[in-house]
């Protein structure tokens, strides 16, 4: 009889606990299976040399194979001269902190291979990307040379996009850069399915 009395409160606690396969952030119940290890860590750092983690959320990881299932043009791999293949995945960092940058000189903007996106050179290796919205230019992300100059002009961009009142950022290589709108849409659809009930 004592065992039954001891087990009854434990069963009630287990039945009332939140879903252990998800983590709640903002209005989302994010599946742990999609979160990066750092997002799952509960350890806190008392090291004063690091910035405070204010407004930053978890990071979601999507394998290239899953993206390819939903976006058939998404390239899961690309050849590498030194390592054979490069595997393309998307890691989305969620945040309440939106990066805001403004065009310094509209006349200096150059065309990109993306529709409505123009580049503002910061150096030969780094440029800021802006999305033309009407007569204004909105910050789209930062790009940098990823190859070896003229022999390999490949690049990658860290793209910021709106998710309601929050933002997401992810890095994407030029092989898949033209798919950024479809990738944004894929991520937003996933997040919609993960809204807490």
Tags for this model:
single chain; 197 residues; alpha+beta; eight-stranded antiparallel beta sheet; two-stranded antiparallel sheet; 37% strand; globular
In short:
Helix content is 20%, strand content 37%.
**Termini distance?**
38 Å
Strand residue content: 35-45%
Could you list the spans in which at least 5 consecutive residues all have pLDDT below 50? 4-18
- Compute the number of helices: 4
How many structurally independent domains? 1
Please tell me the overall pLDDT: 85
The counted number of beta strands is 12
Structural class: alpha+beta
Major sheet summary line: 8 strands, antiparallel
The whole-angstrom Rg is 21 Å
Please list the strands of the largest sheet in the order they lie side by side.
3-6-12-11-10-9-8-7
Order of helices and strands: HEEHEHEEEEEEEEEH
What general form does the structure show? globular
Helix content: 10-25%
